[in-house]
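Support request from a user on the community tier.

User writes: "When I paste my structure tokens into the form, the page sometimes reloads and wipes my input. The last time it worked, I copied everything first. Here is what I submitted, just in case something in the input itself triggers the reload:"
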């Protein structure tokens, strides 16, 4: 990986989170004036992008998704654009080396602009990527979002996109009764405005067999990654208790940020 540019280690970090995270009840003593360098993991459809984006807005750091990096490079006239176009058009997977190079460049550019940390969304996905990432930058914390499989399946099957405005919605109304000591769960649908209702389309790969296969493949590949970060004391496993209204405050609490949002609101 000689082409990889090592990301210079940060100097005044934003938040220092205690190691050894393992459950929703874990807390960490925050330190003022610290950057964050976090990763959000989780099955397809769990809501990584939603929660990572919310935290980025709250903490004032960029939300970096490797899929966006690939799309941005494809639309540019950069040195990798033609190679990426050929890979994507042939239906091949983008190599770890290319992904890491794009990520390294993005992190270095961000540091040059004075960005105070970042949250990576859905990367690394394999143990090889995790090991390579270690040589690029230091990750402070890995948040592994989890949710019941039956809920995840319903969420994926309920996804809809407006063919006109491109908005993303979800028509699934989830109500699961508690049993065997496990609490129930309710998630309201995220319905579109009336003028989008007749223009909703479903992704061609959002079928039950395909979604189940995606989950199987993800679970198989994610276990080594989770173990990698667990062994380093950087993994926070957070089981979503419901939709955003129920989960967001509990996630802030698990990250020891439950009073940070209120302080930011007062300061604003």
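"...and here is what came back when it finally went through:"
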């Amino acid at each position: 990986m000689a082409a990889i540019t090592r990301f210079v280690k940060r100097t005044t970090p934003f938040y220092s989170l205690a190691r050894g995270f393992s459950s929703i009840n874990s807390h960490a003593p925050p330190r003022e004036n610290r950057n964050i360098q976090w990763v959000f993991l989780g099955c397809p459809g769990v809501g990584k992008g939603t929660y990572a984006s919310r935290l980025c807005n709250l903490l004032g750091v960029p939300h970096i998704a490797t899929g966006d990096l690939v799309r941005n490079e494809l639309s540019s006239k950069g040195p990798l654009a033609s190679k990426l176009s050929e890979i994507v058009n042939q239906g091949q997977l983008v190599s770890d080396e290319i992904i890491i190079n794009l990520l390294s460049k993005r992190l270095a550019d961000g540091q040059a602009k004075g960005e105070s940390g970042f949250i990576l969304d859905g990367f690394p996905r394999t143990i090889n990527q995790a090991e390579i990432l270690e040589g690029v930058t230091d990750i402070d914390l890995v948040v592994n979002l989890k949710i019941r499989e039956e809920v995840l399946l319903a969420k994926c099957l309920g996804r809809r996109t407006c063919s006109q405005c491109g908005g993303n919605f979800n028509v699934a109304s989830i109500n699961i009764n508690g049993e065997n000591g496990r609490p129930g769960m309710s998630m309201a649908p995220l319905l579109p405005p009336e003028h989008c209702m007749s223009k909703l389309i479903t992704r061609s790969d959002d079928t039950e067999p395909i979604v189940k296969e995606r989950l199987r493949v993800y679970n198989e590949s994610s276990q080594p990654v989770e173990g990698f970060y667990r062994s380093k004391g950087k993994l926070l496993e957070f089981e979503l208790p419901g939709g955003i209204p129920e989960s967001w405050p509990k996630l802030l609490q698990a990250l020891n940020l439950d009073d940070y949002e209120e302080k930011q609101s007062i300061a604003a």
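Agent notes: The reload is a front-end session timeout and is unrelated to the input. Residues 208-231 form the longest helix (24 residues). The radius of gyration is 19 Å. Escalated to web team.
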